[in-house]
Design a protein that fits this description.
The complex is a heterodimer of chains A (about 260) and B (about 300).
Chain A (H helix, E strand, L loop, with lengths): L4 E10 L2 E11 L4 E5 L6 H7 L10 E9 L2 E2 L7 H7 E4 L11 H10 L6 H14 L3 H4 L12 H14 L4 E5 L7 H14 L4 E5 L3 H7 L2 E7 L6 E8 H6 L4 H7 L5
Parallel strand pairs in A: 2-10, 3-8, 3-9, 6-7, 7-8
Antiparallel strand pairs in A: 1-2, 1-4, 4-5, 9-10
Helix pairs in contact in A: 3-4, 3-6, 4-6, 6-7
Chain B lengths: L16 H40 L2 H5 L15 H32 L4 H14 L3 H15 L6 H26 L2 H8 L5 H29 L3 H6 L18 H7 L8 H30 L6
Helix pairs in contact in B: 1-11, 3-6, 3-8, 3-10, 4-6, 5-6, 6-8, 7-8, 8-11, 10-11
Classes of the chains: A alpha/beta (about 260), B mainly alpha (about 300).
């Protein structure tokens, strides 16, 4: 199910502003890749190009190639909507649909893509909530509003919503930055389980989190404010954290940034 | 010069006498303003209710027209005028609500920030300040002078649409703006196309606000008088036809009886018609609140 991502020579722009310069990397199926680096270095921007979410912002565009198992996501005739069905995303702040119940939130992706069969929906909702470690907490109140849950529960609800459509790749943009340590731990455990099925790419500002959850780590940096962000180094998480080849990576990881 | 408090002992005493006086004066001002605002409303309500309640409580008021009733005779009701007001309001809403909501969707969801959107927004702003008499005369010029149609209930509704449209469009726009982009992105990330996102995520999230705007717009046009005076003749009989050139409506019923001598029975009917109009508008407002409440999911 999980797919391999090949990013080659990608440049990303917001209008005239060059946000990310010449990034190439490979993400293997069923692994967790963490993007780390200072604010403004283009981690989230790169993440959003992996499911063509970047272009939702007016003026934003991408050069280079992003391939999913050999298919270019930016090729001619590729429908961004179809891409996003295969590459799911979890956002920084929990964003359950306020007009929908817990059940409807999880079922939204399937329903809005035309699935009407009650049995299929019930099965998918339960499977996704179980996978997101939320089932036991909400199984008795599936009809209540999703926004009535706590922040950590809401974020797990959003993860359940994202995996209910059975994507091949799951992108997570700082999924724990708005959560307390206990909820964070729950999500991190969940990421460990999710990688058995999905290819996961996670942006995080928390170095320990990157070290805990990821197999591969990519460090991004920018020369100065207003300059494009660059991929400085990518390698196995163990190598990046214990024996990085670049000084900038070591400085950032050890907290001697600058 | 910086205020160095570290050397002087801390003081938590009450403010000086002058400050207390200023505070008291400001408090009186603010309260007075609030009371003055409420006085006219209470006064109007009291007068209208006390003068009109007797007829409104009578079931005949809601079931009979004024056919054959002269100002000197007791009896009759406002049924003909209620039909007119409700029918005109409905036709108006039928045109203005889809146009307003769809227009707002275009401006916010598809053309946000573009030059064309700004131009349309500006036009809507101007339209929202349009006096009702101007709207009525415009429709008169267009329908009757240019196209040669007769005066009709539909013409009234079209004139009122010009007044209701900006209210609906503007309020829908504001409500759509309040829907966070993160919800749209969450929906896109599930592989949901833009139009389904609008229909199933954005609109339901903004639904209570949009329905409030619709009802408030409707309440506004139901009380308008100028288009009724210009585009249709007041009739005392029951009539449902939207193409008819004569139709009773509550504002024109009030207008037609406004110069009755206070001693005549017709005088009381004017107050009762005013009360009926207030009741209908109030009912609409309650309805808007009901819809807003009913559309909200229980959280716990």
């Amino acid at each position: 199910m999980a797919k391999r991502i090949d990013v080659s020579n990608v440049d990303i722009y917001y209008g005239a502003f060059h946000a990310v310069q010449d990034v190439s990397m490979t993400v293997e199926p069923r692994t967790v890749t963490a993007f780390i680096g200072p604010s403004g270095c283009g981690k989230s921007t790169l993440l959003r190009t992996l499911n063509r979410m970047h272009e939702v912002i007016p003026g934003a565009h991408v050069k280079g190639r992003v391939q999913l198992d050999g298919t270019d996501l930016y090729g001619a005739g590729v429908d961004p909507v179809a891409v996003r069905r295969v590459v799911g995303m979890v956002f920084q702040r929990p964003n359950p649909f306020p007009s929908m119940s817990i059940y409807d939130n999880v079922a939204a992706g399937l329903r809005l893509n035309g699935v009407k069969n009650k049995g299929v929906l019930n099965e998918a909702v339960e499977r996704s909530l179980v996978a997101a470690n939320l089932w036991n907490e909400v199984k008795d109140r599936l009809g209540k509003a999703g926004i009535g849950l706590s922040g950590g529960q809401q974020q797990r609800l959003c993860i359940a919503r994202a995996i209910a459509v059975e994507p091949q790749v799951l992108l997570m943009d700082e999924p724990c930055s708005a959560l307390d340590p206990i909820s964070t731990l729950a999500i991190e455990d969940l990421i460990g389980e999710l990688k058995e099925q999905f290819t996961v790419v996670i942006v995080t500002h928390n170095m320990q989190q990157a070290a805990r959850v990821s197999d591969q780590t990519a460090f991004f940096n920018l020369a100065a404010q207003g300059k494009p962000g660059k991929l400085i180094e990518i390698g196995s998480t163990e190598t990046i954290f214990s024996n990085p080849t670049q000084k900038a990576t070591e400085d950032y990881i050890t907290g001697r940034f600058g | 010069m910086s205020l160095d408090t570290s050397s002087t002992p801390l003081s938590f005493r009450r403010p000086s006498g002058l400050r207390t006086v200023k505070n008291g004066a400001a408090w009186v001002y603010v309260s007075l303003a609030a009371v003055l605002t409420v006085i006219p409303l209470v006064w109007i309500l009291y007068t209208v209710i006390s003068q009109g309640y007797r007829l409104v409580l009578n079931s005949n008021w809601w079931l009979q027209s004024q056919r054959g009733i002269t100002p000197r005779r007791e009896g009759g009701g406002a049924y003909h005028a209620i039909i007119g007001t409700v029918e005109i309001g409905l036709i108006c809403a039928l045109i203005a609500v889809p146009l307003g909501i769809l227009g707002a969707i275009l401006l916010i969801e598809y053309a946000r920030g573009s030059k064309a959107a700004r131009a349309v927004s500006f036009a809507v702003d101007i339209l929202s300040g349009l006096p009702s008499i101007v709207a009525a005369l415009f429709i008169y010029a267009l329908f009757i002078t240019v196209f040669g149609f007769g005066r009709s209930v539909i013409a009234v509704s079209c004139a009122l649409t010009l007044l209701m449209l900006p209210v609906v469009l503007r309020s829908t726009e504001e409500m759509l703006k309040l829907v966070p982009d993160s919800l749209r992105e969450a929906s896109y990330a599930l592989g949901v196309p833009c139009w389904k996102t609008i229909l199933h995520v954005v609109i339901p999230t903004a639904f209570s606000g949009i329905s409030t705007g619709v009802v408030l717009g409707l309440a506004r046009v139901m009380g308008e008088t100028a288009p009724l005076l210009i585009l249709v003749s007041y009739a005392v009989g029951i009539n449902f036809s939207p193409t008819s050139a004569t139709m009773g409506a509550l504002p024109t019923m009030i207008n037609s009886g406004r110069d009755q001598a206070p001693t005549l029975p017709g005088y009381e009917r004017v107050w009762a018609a005013a009360l009926t109009l207030i009741l209908i508008v109030m009912l609409l407002n309650l309805l808007a609140r009901g819809i807003a409440r009913a559309s909200k999911l229980k959280e716990k």
